[in-house]
Amino acid sequence: MRLANLGGRAVLLVDGGAVDVERLTDGVFGPGARSVLDNWAAFSAAVAEADVEGAERIAYEPADLGTPVPEPRQIFAVGLNYADHAAESNVPAPDHPLIFTKFQSSLAGPAATVTLPTENVDFEAELVAVIGKEAYQVAEADGWSYVAGLTVGQDLSEREVQMRGMPVPQFSLGKSYPGFSPVGPAVVTLDEIENPDDLAIRGWVGDEVLQESRTKQLIFSVPSIVAYLSGVCTLHPGDLIFTGTPAGVGNGRTPKRFLRPGETLLTEVEGLGRLENPLVQGYESTASA
């Protein structure tokens, strides 16, 4: 199943178009994503019994899709969760997940145009896990059973704002400008993924590959992150977890390589789909004429 957001309505992406969830389930679920995710087990069972193949198809373009989980209660993110990214950041690999948050207002769709507020905006390709049922003090061995599905995300970061307050910076504001959390194109259920612990992940601009790795390189796996977070917080259906980014970020390069207006940032995770986010200028350039 691939759950997406088309014009504010929950849909399933299938061959030939999209299927409206509310119509498919005779009004039991939908029209938005919240009723679907809040009742994930019942919804999954209803879809399994529904005539998806015979349902009406709605034509759409990728640009028509919004973020598939538009109203998560919580958005968590994990820092330095690939050893090579920790190394390029000149810090040791962490002993425990390093957690920060992103704000809901930063969410954007898979083809949303992102306005760059400064010249210091960096890219971070990420696998994103979507929680499917309430979780508190979950064992790592049971972690996957609390995940509704996976999707693609970008943790865009304004590095100067992010690092304010050194040596104890607070990351959330620098990672929460409007559009700084594009997610999508759909929440893909685990039954459609051959090995959710090992997926290719890639970010690029034009012909320039910026990041390329596999999620098996995560220091802390999705189940271990679910266990760690739920040991402190109650996780709710629809919560998003950005699981971390591999090496190659602009801030770790010499010279630094930040995003530029006019570029289109592409992000892909194997089997989950692709983000294509055009970038436009929202600042007065400091470059000399």
TrEMBL record:
GO terms for molecular function: hydrolase activity; isomerase activity; metal ion binding. InterPro entries: FAH (IPR051121), Fumarylacetoacetase-like_C (IPR011234), Fumarylacetoacetase_C_sf (IPR036663). GO terms for biological process: carboxylic acid metabolic process. Residues 75-279 form the Fumarylacetoacetase-like C-terminal domain. Keywords: Hydrolase, Metal-binding. It holds the Pfam family FAA_hydrolase. Gene3D superfamilies: Fumarylacetoacetase-like, C-terminal domain. Belongs to the FAH family. This is Fumarylacetoacetate hydrolase. It comes from Streptomyces mangrovisoli.
